Amino acid sequence: MPFACERCGALYPTHGTPFRCPACGGLYDQVAAPSFDLHQVEVRQPGLWRYRAALDLPDGAPRVWLGEGQTPLVWLNEDGIEVGLKLENLNPTGSYKDRGSAVLLSQLLGRGVREAVEDSSGNAGASFAAYAACAGVKARVYVPASASGPKLRQIQAYGAEVRAIAGPRSAAAAAVLQEAEAGVPYASHAYLPFGLAGIATIAYELWEAGFRSGSIVAPVGHGGLLLGVLRGFVALQQAGLVQQLPHFVAVQAAACAPLVKAAQTGAPIVEASEGQTVAEGVRVRSPMRGAAILRQAPAGQHDYLAVAEEDILPACQALARRGFYVEPTSALVWAALEQLRGKIPLPVVLILTGSGLKYAG
Length: 361
Prior knowledge:
- The structure is a single chain.
- The protein is of the alpha/beta class.
- It has two domains: about 75-95 and about 195-360, 3-Layer(aba) Sandwich (Rossmann fold), CATH 3.40.50; about 95-180, Rossmann fold (3-Layer(aba) Sandwich).
- The chain is about 30% helix and about 15% strand.
- The protein has helices spanning about 95-110, 125-135, 150-155, 170-180, 195-200, 200-210, 225-240, 260-265, 290-295, 310-320, 330-340; strands at about 5, 30, 75-80, 80-85, 115-120, 140-145, 160-165, 215-220, 245-255, 300-305, 350.
- The strands form three sheets. Strands 3-4-11-8-9-10 form a six-stranded mixed beta sheet, sandwiched between helices. A three-stranded parallel beta sheet has the order 5-6-7, with helices on both faces. Strands 1-2 form a two-stranded antiparallel ribbon.
- The protein is globular.
- The relative contact order is 0.14.
């Protein structure tokens, strides 16, 4: 399936790795949802690579694999509500980002890239650094100087060069653009659309685990996680494997909630203030995939919630008391559960995005 510019429709070139359209500056995206064929699932392949036929990779692209995918789905009965926890924190680098990184690095290798830059508050940078190390790609990662120490040490341990930028998350994004504009391949998890097909494999795994209908709750920063899962379920629906799409819930921290504000105002997307929050993974004031989520979420089957700052760490503690050690960004979905009680279809699947071992509280 090709990729194209959202603004002018120009197809992504077959060579090179522009992070935005050279003609108009627009964002590249998938032309359509992934295509899923149950008969093409390669059951002998490891992890998410069992779904290679749905990963939008060119013929001959190498497989970059560190053990990502096939994460557990654990069910709880929480005060009468059937709640499934999709443990994306158990991926190799400790976050769901590994699904996108595996596909991204495979794409980059197939295009001859041997050096690339990225910017990240932590999880995406750690994931990119790990998969770049596996692929033999020289990596440089721009991070906010305030990012959690464990994540910075993790990035450095993989051999990537870390450039810490003073100021908010957006300052690191601005700094990396200087290199990208100079021609260094920008392996952006936010700008490049390649990793979305990898994230969509969460939907395929949920289907294989028996999930057919209900609700999916996920934290939203740039929006790639929720958009990827949504498109994965669209692919399943088009394949005749689910009758209707789940109800989708996007959760953000109240300190930085642009998608929530856009939904409230009816705007195609807004830019929010970048307030302080322990949920650093969603501290994104202008989400790259936010407009796509607002356009493509099924009518009447989506909600956008903001979680108050004082509710985030208690949600972390509540999950830990049940045996699930996650970082604050992951705990947003648990904090949202009480607001959603009685309002969304059951069962509910919460996507736990990152390990608690990454958080220096």
